[in-house]
Design a protein that fits this description.
The chain has about 300 residues and is mostly helical. Helices cover about 75% and strands about 5% of the residues. It is built from 10 helices and 3 strands; from the N terminus they run E-H-H-E-H-H-H-E-H-H-H-H-H. A 3-stranded mixed sheet has the order 2-1-3. The termini are far apart.
Length: about 300
C-alpha cells in the first residue's frame, strides 16, 4: 500500500464489545468479576506452591510460572477494557496501543513456550520416572523458563519496532477491545508487506516449534502409557496430562482460530479473543486445582495452618 499524503493520526478508538450503554455496564461487572477472580486464583496458586514443600517439584515449578504469566497476560488487556466500558471516549494513544501490542506478543508468546516446556516435563515424568529428578534438574527448569521469556520477548522485538515505523491515516477505529497487530495493519497508509511477512514468518516458526515439542512429548507419552498394564497406573498417567492438554487446547486453540479469521471484529473473532486473553488466565488455576489431588491437599494443609495461626 503506497504512502498517501494525509495527516498522521496519534490515537485510536477501540470499538470494544458493545455500543449499548446498558450492555456495557453489564459487561463491566462481568469482566471486573472475571479479572478479580483471575487475580485471586493465580495468586492462590503462587502462594500454595511456594508455601507447601510437597509441591516443590518441577511440575509445580512450571505451574507457578504459568500462574505468574497468566496474571501478567490478563493485566495487559483487561484493565483497559474495563476503562473503556465506562468511558464515552474509548481512546488509546498510538504509543499506548503499540505498547499493549508489544506485551500481548511478549507474554502470549511466553505462555505458549511455557506450555510446551510443561509438555516436556510430563514426558520426562512418565517416560523416565526413575531418573525424572536428574532429567528435570532445577537448572534445566530455570533455563526453560528463561528461554520461554526470552523467545516471547524476541518475537515482540522482531515485530513491534517494524509497526512503530508505520503511519496511520484517516481511519483510526480498531474493531476490537485491545490492540493486536493484525488489527492495526488495515489502518496503516504505509506499505505493510514487510510487516505481514515478518509476522507470518515469526508466527509460523513460533507455532511449529512449540507444536513439534508438544506433539513429540505426547506421542512418546501415549506410547509409554499403552505399555502400562495396571489400570490404576494408566489412569494416573492420563490424569497427569489431562489438565495440561486442556490448558493447551483452551489457549492455543482459541488463539490459532482467532488469528485465522479476517480482522473484522466479528462476534466469533471476539469470542475466541476473549477466550484466550481473558478466560484462559481465569480457568487455568481451576483446571490445575480441581483436577489435582496434590494441589487440593496442599490447599487444605495451608488453610489448616492459617486457622491454627489465628487461634
Amino acid at each position: 500500500m503506497a504512502l498517501r499524503n494525509h495527516s498522521t493520526i496519534a490515537e485510536f478508538i477501540l470499538i470494544g464489545l458493545s455500543a449499548d450503554p446498558r450492555v456495557q455496564v453489564l459487561l463491566f461487572v462481568l469482566f471486573l468479576g472475571t479479572y478479580l477472580l483471575t487475580l485471586m486464583g493465580n495468586l492462590m496458586m503462587l502462594l500454595i506452591i511456594r508455601a507447601d514443600s510437597h509441591l516443590h517439584t518441577p511440575m509445580y515449578f512450571f505451574l507457578s510460572r504459568l500462574s505468574f504469566v497468566d496474571l501478567c497476560f490478563s493485566s495487559v488487556t483487561v484493565p483497559k477494557l474495563l476503562e473503556n466500558l465506562l468511558s464515552k471516549r474509548k481512546i488509546i494513544s498510538k504509543e499506548g496501543c503499540l505498547t499493549q501490542a508489544f506485551f500481548v506478543f511478549d507474554i502470549g508468546g511466553t505462555e505458549i513456550f511455557l506450555l510446551s516446556a510443561m509438555a516436556y516435563d510430563h514426558y520426562a515424568a512418565i517416560c523416565y520416572p526413575l531418573i525424572y529428578g536428574q532429567v528435570m534438574s532445577s537448572q534445566l527448569c530455570m533455563n526453560l523458563v528463561w528461554a520461554s521469556w526470552g523467545l516471547g520477548f524476541l518475537d515482540a522485538v522482531i515485530n513491534i519496532p517494524l509497526a512503530v515505523k508505520l503511519n496511520f491515516c484517516e481511519v483510526h477505529t480498531i474493531p476490537h477491545y485491545s490492540c493486536e497487530l493484525p488489527f492495526l495493519f488495515p489502518l496503516s497508509c504505509s506499505d505493510i508487506s514487510t510487516n505481514v511477512t515478518v509476522l507470518v514468518g515469526s508466527t509460523l516458526l513460533h507455532g511449529f516449534g512449540t507444536f513439534f515439542l508438544i506433539f513429540f512429548s505426547y506421542t512418546r507419552i501415549v506410547s509409554t502409557i499403552l505399555t502400562i498394564r495396571s489400570n490404576t497406573g494408566r489412569s494416573k498417567a492420563f490424569s497427569t496430562c489431562s489438565s495440561h492438554l486442556t490448558a493447551v487446547s483452551f489457549f492455543c486453540g482459541s488463539a490459532f482460530l482467532c488469528h485465522l479469521m479476517p480482522t473484522s471484529g466479528s462476534s466469533p473473532e471476539l469470542i475466541f479473543s476473549i477466550q484466550y486473553g481473558v478466560l484462559t488466565p481465569l480457568v487455568n488455576p481451576l483446571i490445575y486445582s480441581l483436577k489435582n489431588k496434590e494441589v487440593k491437599a496442599a490447599l487444605r494443609r495451608t488453610l489448616g495452618k492459617c486457622l491454627q495461626w489465628h487461634r
